[in-house]
Amino acid sequence: MNNQPAHHQSRIGATLARHHEAGTMALVGWQTIGFPTVEASRTLVPALIDGGFDLIELGVPFSDPQADGTTIQRASFEALKQGATLSIALDTVRTLRSDGITAPLIFMSYYNPILSRGSNDLRSTPAKPG
Amino acid sequence: MQDGDGQVVETHSISAGLDYPGVGPEHSWYKDSGRATYVAVDDESALAGFELLCQTEGIIPALETAHAIAYARRVRASRPSSEIIVVNCSGRGDKDLSTVATRLGVTL
User: Fold this and answer.
1) How many C-beta neighbours within 10 Å does residue B64 have?
2) What is the mean pLDDT of chain B?
3) Around B43, how many Cα atoms within 13 Å sit in the side-chain half-sphere?
4) Which residues of chain A neighbour B8 with C-beta distances below 8 Å?
5) Which residue in A38, A67, A86 sits closest to B2, CA to CA?
6) Active-site residues of A: which are they?
7) Can you say whether the dihedral through the CA atoms of B23, B27, B33, B38 is positive or negative?
8) Fewest CB within a 10 Å sphere: which of A40, A80, B66, B101?
9) A117 to chain B nearest CA, in Å?
10) Which DSSP symbol is given to A71?
11) Would you say A70 and A97 are in contact if contact means Cβ atoms under 8 Å apart?
């Protein structure tokens, strides 16, 4: 989190601090962008938050998700068939923010989709190795 | 081998050792520095190369090696007959006999 812009770090930090002060645990959910469809994230992420999730990890699908278990591997494979990409993942976050979602949204991606864009400078993107 | 989004693409080769989307740093360096030239050989040519070495030398090459045999035959025609072409027989083909038999419609 050292290289996160201050306002993103404070969004995650504020959520965790709120739970810390209340003595409760924060719940982190996962959504593979593009599963079951690209459009589904727009309703599924708010549904997760309504259901009690505090932070949402947004998985960028990758052809070889070797660091993930079979569930996320299968979701990733389906998401790629639906045409999900890193660009679509970024657009999804913009859409969710404009829809009024304020919960922390954290990308999880393998490195190659990021490397292929020729830039490492993506906001709120901790890259998974591989 | 990857698409524009950085997704690794599906590869194909009749030989398992060549059916892979990655390449090591040594071959990458040889190619970029111009020290080596890299060419493509398809499945059918590799099978023909497999049969050629079996029939002429009684040596069963690995299917990976058979790609090199096929390319040597391809390039031989344009080289002077006095020239010696060295082919590295990288592996033996016992492991590939059932694959080749299936492709050639032979029952072992």
Assistant:
1) 19
2) 96
3) 11
4) 63-64, 112
5) A86
6) 57, 68
7) negative
8) B101
9) 7
10) H
11) no
Q: Is the complex ipTM higher than 0.85?
A: no
Closest to A9 in 3D by CA, of A60, A58, A61, A55: A55
* Res. A6 pLDDT band, cuts 50 70 90: low
Cβ atoms of A109 and A125 within 8 Å: the answer is: yes
End-to-end Cα separation, chain A, in angstroms: 19
Per residue in A19-75, pLDDT (tens digit) is 999 999 999 999 999 999 999 988 999 999 999 999 999 999 999 999 999 999 999
Tokens coding A22: 């209340």
- For chain B, the residues whose C-beta falls within 8 A of a C-beta of chain A are 2, 4-9
Q: Which residues contact B49 (CB under 8 A, 6 or more apart)?
A: B41, B61, B66, B67, B68, B69, B70, B71, B72, B73
At residue A109, does pLDDT exceed 90?
yes
Q: What is each CA distance from A67 to A86, A127, A129, in whole angstroms? A: 18, 12, 9
The residue among A63, A109, A112 with the most chain B CBs within 10 A of its CB, best to mutate, is: A63
CA-based nearest residue to A48, from A106, A87, A7: A106
Determine the residue type at A18: R
A81 touches chain B (CB under 8 A): no
